[in-house]
Amino acid sequence: MGFHLIVINSVLYIQNNKITWLGKFLRKTLLDELPAYYNVLVGEMSLVGPRPRSTNMLENTIDAENKILSVKPGITGLSQLSASLIFNTQVAIILDLDYINKWSLLLDAKILLKTIAGVFFVNRK
Q1: What is the DSSP letter of 52?
Q2: Mean pLDDT in the chain?
Q3: Mean pLDDT value across residues 83-97
Q4: Which residues pair with 46 in a beta bridge?
Q5: What is the pTM of this model?
Q6: According to the model, what pLDDT value does residue 120 have?
Q7: H or E segment and range at residue 40
Q8: pLDDT of residue 22
Q9: Which of 74, 84, 86 has its CA nearest to residue 111?
Q10: Which of 88, 103, 107, 108 is deepest in the core (most CB within 10 A)?
Q11: Is the pLDDT of residue 85 over 70?
Q12: What is the rounded CA–CA span in Å between residue 2 and residue 16?
């Protein structure tokens, strides 16, 4: 296998051993997100919203699929903020639906602030 599980402060992480030095650099400097920011600039994505998913991840949930696919995907969202707690795609879908149902500018602002705090103030390896 190319990955192993590690626990830091009671949080389970998946460490991928197949990431090259260039991939590590791109992730650490957040340059791997540049294509997503380009998509925001051209209007294909938003800063906050459900993360893009393939339709086979949403199979057997036609209503959820229609609702999630009806909004622009986002770079960050509720399911991304809870990523270390999510081990099940269905939980991520529930969080995305919760975001869609409760959407407001204030909620987007809170998610963006938590994302910024997580990127800049959480110890990154």
Answers
A1: P
A2: 78
A3: 75
A4: 74
A5: 0.69
A6: 77
A7: helix 34-41
A8: 87
A9: 74
A10: 108
A11: no
A12: 6
Q: What residue type is 14 in one-letter code?
A: I
Is 1 within 8 Å of 13 (Cβ atoms)? no
Cβ–Cβ under 8 Å, residues 78 and 51? no
Residues in the chain: 125
Of 124, 41, 56, give the one whose Cα is nearest residue 93.
Answer: 56
Report in angstroms the alpha-carbon separations of 88 from 5, 57, 80, 83: 16, 11, 13, 10
Q: Which residues pair with 14 in a beta bridge?
A: 5
Could you tell me if residue 57 is left (phi over 0), alpha (psi between -120 and 50 degrees) or otherwise beta?
Answer: alpha
Assigned token pair, 9? 């402060």
Beta bridge partners of 3: 16
The model's confidence at residue 113, banded by pLDDT at 50, 70 and 90, is very high
DSSP output for 45-88: SEEESPPP--GGGGTT-HHHHHHHHTS--EEE-HHHHTGGG---
User: What is the residue extent of each domain of the chain?
Assistant: 3-121
